[in-house]
Write a structure and sequence with these properties.
The protein is α/β, with parallel strands linked by helices. The protein has 15 helices and 12 strands.
Length: 377
């Protein structure tokens, strides 16, 4: 099975040459989805490249990038880290620290990497800086851990630009938030997500009404799920009933023939650290977690226990991390997470770009105590 992606031009070539997409875009296999097959473009195209979906283990980042950057790898169930972006004291991106964090997650069995989201201070990065982060992430973990890239904002033109950049750089999927502040109607959300899915990169819909002031309803999620490139949802509402409601609507769409029966269900990720274990025990598929920055192994183990319906073990780990879940938000995200990583000697400093600041001293003992209770320091 092969996937043809040679940057933006190759993607467009593939789309134009394809008479139709296969209806069985994703099929279930264990805890992940198979790669999607796109019809082969003309062999005379100067842009197309054949890339095998089989990952070959290599010893260098450059080799991994060369062999895997044009392959779309399936997102997995489990723990996806909402990764921080480390900076130097002067405010520039700390590339060595970023590489070190990525390898920390490889070694800790993190199931997915989500870069350039809220936790990554993406709204404070230029397009050039975004590319730096994307390139490093692809070099370090492409083909090892699926890469989910935040590309959402208010203006659909900017979302498109960032998504196309993510395609060019070799990401595996985009995380697109409901456009914040302007409160679009549900029909506007349908158009927005469908348009972004048309770009050809798998999309995870991000619902976080506490930040955006707009809530995408389960019914609307069911509609956008008709698009084969809408592959998941990040639910950051903290409402555990949403799992059942979304599953019910999705099943109704299948029964009406609007979602092909061969397609796997949407991946449902929790974006609320304090309820992630319960979310998965109720039928969710994993989490996109801030806590996973500091406790990646523990979060992976908790998600695997919950997926295996080992409720007692999942809740045991969750109880150990309870204070981390809470206190890693004692100030605006990612301020406490960065301070915690510095305290754990995972990054050199806790610099956050203005208008964010480093953690207030009065919270140092609070975060430190949570880390100690979880045996992270």
């Amino acid at each position: 099975m092969t996937r043809f992606i040679g940057g933006r031009a190759a993607l467009i070539t593939a789309l134009l040459c394809a008479a139709s997409y296969p209806t069985d875009a994703f099929t279930p296999t264990s805890r992940h989805w198979n790669s999607r097959t796109v019809r082969t473009p003309s062999t005379t195209s100067p842009f197309s490249r054949t890339v095998a979906t089989t990952t070959t283990t290599t010893t260098s980042s450059t080799q991994r990038n060369a062999s895997n950057s044009n392959t779309i790898h399936p997102l997995k169930k489990g723990s996806t880290v909402a990764l921080v972006t480390p900076f130097t004291p002067s405010g520039s991106i700390d590339i060595p620290a970023l590489r070190s964090l990525l390898q920390f997650h490889v070694q800790s069995s993190t199931d997915g990497i989500c870069i350039l989201g809220t936790t990554g201070e993406a709204s404070l990065l230029s397009m050039e800086e975004r590319k730096m982060v994307l390139d490093v992430c692809v070099e370090e973990v492409k083909g090892i851990i699926p890469i989910l890239c935040g590309t959402g904002t208010i203006d659909p033109k900017q979302v498109r630009e960032m998504t196309l950049q993510a395609i060019d750089c070799g990401c595996d999927a985009s995380l697109v938030v409901t456009p914040p502040y302007i409160k679009p109607p549900q029909r506007g959300l349908v158009r927005h997500f469908m348009d972004m899915a048309d770009l050809g990169l798998p999309v995870v819909v991000y619902n976080v009404p506490g930040r955006t002031a707009v809530d995408i309803s389960p019914e609307t999620i069911g509609i956008v799920a008709e698009h084969e490139m809408i592959v998941g949802v990040k639910e950051a509402t903290g409402d555990l009933t949403r799992v059942e409601r979304i599953r019910k609507v999705e099943q109704e769409q299948r029964q009406m023939g609007k979602i092909h029966s061969n397609r796997s269900p949407l991946l449902l990720y929790s974006g609320d650290d304090s309820t992630e274990a319960e979310f998965v025990l109720k039928g969710g598929d994993g989490c996109i977690s801030v806590t996973a920055n500091v406790a990646p192994r523990e979060m992976h183990d908790m998600m695997m226990a919950a997926l295996d319906r080992k409720a007692e073990e999942a809740m045991r780990i969750n109880e150990m991390l309870k204070d981390v879940h809470k206190d890693i938000f004692c100030e605006s995200n990612p301020i406490p997470a960065k301070w915690a990583l510095k305290r754990m000697n995972k990054i050199p400093n806790a610099y956050c770009r203005p208008p964010l600041m480093e953690l207030d001293e009065k919270y140092h003992t609070v975060v430190e105590a949570a880390l100690a209770k979880a045996r992270l320091i």
